[in-house]
Amino acid sequence: MSSIRLFILGSLSQHGELHGHQLRLLAEEERVHMWTDISVGAIYGAIKRMAADGLIDVVRTEREGGYPERQVYAISMSGRRALDEERREGLEQVHLKPDPFDLALTRLDRTRLDDLQPVLEGRLVALKNVLADALAAHQRAAPHVTVSESWALDHRTHRIRAEISWLEALLAGLPELVADERARHGNPDPLPESSPRSPNTG
């Protein structure tokens, strides 16, 4: 499932023929970067790929004032079939990407276990700042978004809150985690900066 393809095909289906700049303006107007993984700047490249794949057709070229010529696109029959598929997959499929944090958590530097709490506390502060920014942006956008877009924005804040709740639980359980790491691996002293551990020692 491709978010940017769903956005372009859905926009052409809903609004009719558009050129690339109009699609970019529409993405900015709908603030899609706030609640999707779409980069507004990637729209032009996606348009070219989709035209090459036959999902959209160039219907004409037009010029406005002193601006360069712009190609105007319409959704093709293949594009309409792809749009149906993208909509269905977007609603049905569950997308929960693995977080690199989890791998790092299982590969801790056992010489720096005492540093873990401040690192996690810093991460918690950063997440709370992300939540505050998201809530403020949601409030600013509220007068301009549809009901469905409001639900999409709310989904993002719920996911951030869940991440914050999980991290707070991890901090509460940190003594047990550190004790387990030390019990399984011993409790080596931190290595001096001038004396790196040999690759052949564990």
What does this structure look like?
The chain is mainly α and about 200 residues long. The protein folds into two domains: about 5-90, Orthogonal Bundle (Arc Repressor Mutant, subunit A), CATH 1.10.10; about 100-185. The chain is built from eight helices and three strands, in the order H-E-H-H-E-E-H-H-H-H-H. The protein has helices spanning about 5-15, 20-30, 45-50, 75-90, 100-105, 115-140, 145-170, 175-185; strands at about 20, 55-60, 70-75. The chain has a three-stranded antiparallel β-sheet. Strand 2 (about 55-60) and strand 3 form a beta hairpin. The longest helix is centred in the middle third of the chain and has 26 residues, at about 115-140. It starts with a helix and ends in a 17-residue tail after the last helix.
Question: What is the total number of structural domains?
Answer: 2
Task: Provide the structure class.
Answer: mainly alpha
CATH hierarchy: architecture of the largest domain: Orthogonal Bundle
Low-confidence stretches: 194-202
Strand element count: 3
Order of helices and strands: HEHHEEHHHHH
Largest sheet: 3 strands, antiparallel
Number of helices: 8
Write the CATH fold name of the largest domain.
Answer: Arc Repressor Mutant, subunit A
Kindly state the percentage of residues in helix.
55-70%
> What is the CATH class name of the largest domain?
Mainly Alpha
Shape: elongated
What is the assigned CATH homologous superfamily of the largest domain? Winged helix-like DNA-binding domain superfamily/Winged helix DNA-binding domain
How much of the residues is beta strand, in percent? 5-15%
Give me the side-by-side strand order of the main sheet.
1-3-2
